Amino acid sequence: MKSKFAKAVLICGIAVTAGFSTVGAATVYNNVSATLRPDIMVKYNNEAIALKDANNELITPIIINGSTYLPIRAIANLTGLSIGWDNESKTILIGDIIEEKDEIGVRGVVKNLVKGKDGVTFLVEGKLEEDTMLDIAYVTVNMQTTVMKDGVEITKDFAYGEIKEGDILETVFTGPIAKSYPAQAVAKKINIISEDTKTPVINARVKAPDVAGKIMEIEEGGKRILVDSKSTTVNGLIWVTVNKETSFFENISEDIAIGYRNVSREFEVGNHVEIIIDGGVKESYPMQATADAVAVNEKR
C-alpha cells in the first residue's frame, strides 16, 4: 500500500513540476491555472498533518483542472522515502531512506578537562576498537554539541557542564580532525556512560563476558589467575593470562557495553571477575586463555 501511494504521488509531482513528456519526445510545457486550497485537510493514518517544503515552510494543497496535488517531498517523508533533485537532468530522485549510523570517534576515560568560556576541552583515552576511529584524542565540546547520558539527551543549558574527569564517554566528531598526537576534534555528539548502565549507547555495542566467576589462585604477581567460571561460554576452571595489552574495568554490570576504563588493579583470591578473552580457549585442564579485558566486580 505504501509503495502504490508513493508512485501515485510521483506521477502527480512530475506532471506539475516537469511538464508532460513521453519517452523519446521533447518535453511540452503548459501553463495552467492553479488554486491554493488551505481549507483542504490532509490526514495520514487518520491524523491531520501539516505539509511543509524543503525550507520547513507550510504549504497547501493545490487544485488544477479539478485534480488535487500534494507536495511530493512532504508525502515521501511520511512514507519513508527520500527526495532529491538533479537540476542538470531536471529529475526528481526518490529512494528509500537509509539510516546513517554515527561513527564513534573515540571511547574512553575523560582526563585533563579544561573549562573555557563557551565549552570544555579534555583528553579521552581509551582503546582502539572495531567501531572507533581513534584510541586517544583531545575533544572540544561546545554549545552546539548534543550531550547525552546513557543515550538520553541532557536538555538543560550548558549540558557540557555534566562532563567530569574520570567519566567514561564516547564521542562523534564533526568537522576536520587535527592530525596531531593525540588528535584534536570538535564533538557533534557526546554520550556519558554510567558504569552500571544497561541502556543502549550510541550504535549499541554490548558484549557478554566469556569468563565469569571467583578467583581461586593467583600466580606470577597477578599475571595469571585461576578462575572458577560459571558463564555459559566457559564453564569450569580456567587459567587466564593478564598482560600489558589487557584492559581493566571496575564495578561493571554483567553486560559490558562500553569501552575500556584503564585502571590499576591488584587481584585478590575471592574477587569476582568477568573477562573477555583475546582469541580462543586452550582445551587443557584447567583450561587456558589470555584476557583482552578484565573486570573486578565488587558488587558480587
Automatic annotation (TrEMBL):
Residues 60-147 form the Copper amine oxidase-like N-terminal domain. Residues 1-25 form the signal peptide. Keywords: Signal. This is Copper amine oxidase-like N-terminal domain-containing protein. SUPFAM superfamilies: Copper amine oxidase, domain N. It comes from the Bacteria. Transmembrane segments: none annotated. It comes from Geosporobacter ferrireducens. Pfam families: Cu_amine_oxidN1 (PF07833), DUF3221 (PF11518).
